[in-house]
Design a protein that fits this description.
By secondary structure, this protein is an alpha/beta fold. It folds into two domains: 57 residues; 162 residues, no CATH class. 40% of the residues lie in helices and 10% in strands. β5 and β6 form a beta hairpin. α3 packs across α7. The longest helix is centred in the first third of the chain and has 52 residues. The protein is elongated and about 110 Å long.
Amino acid sequence: MSRTPSNQRVTKAERKEQARRERIELQRKVARSRRNRRVLVIGLAVIVAGVAIFAFTRPGTEVPSPQELLANVADARSQAGCGEVQDVGSYQPRAQDRSHVPPEAMPPLATYASTPPASGPHNEITFGAGVYSTAPPIERVLHSLEHGGAVVWYAPDATGQELERVRAFYEDDEVGGRVIVAPYDYPTQGAAGVLPTGVRMSLVSWHHVQSCEELNLAAAFGFTSGYAAPPFGQQQYRGNAPEAGAGF
């Protein structure tokens, strides 16, 4: 009768030990996986909560509705130190008020009827409505005014909550589709290339300018809602752009 070799008994023991180790390792992997999932879920929850808190507490992004703004225009204009809307008239000679010229032939801004200009020689290409962080080509902006656009110019060093409110509001096509928001900053044009002393926001449409000592969203919308063409909602159009409503 043959006997089982001793090395065979050792092999079985090793297999048993290996199986035990594999079970332990599997249990550890399962535990790690569960722990990692918990950490991931908690981390995502923290991120979502952080984004929500940031969105609700970030200054300068809470924007009233157009109706709320229109209800407060008079007070807003007073608070912002806005003057009356001025009809600044045409460029002189009047025959050049709507003339098209290439950029290199643009006359100095000092020759225009107002600062910022509200009409006069301009590029044959318009400039699209939108919110801009740098000064756009003034010769193209003027053509957009001829088509019934309006501009909210602000001092290039302006910062803070009200500027962010203005920018956020006009990014909505419903209210900003005919409005250009940008800094007025043309340093090569001397005094005519910056806003007048004491003016931080200038509201412009064809032949019309309203100057304000401070940025104010309700004051800005009170102007653009009626002086951009077509006007907002049921507002009456108060401008006189030669090609009001044309595309740009």
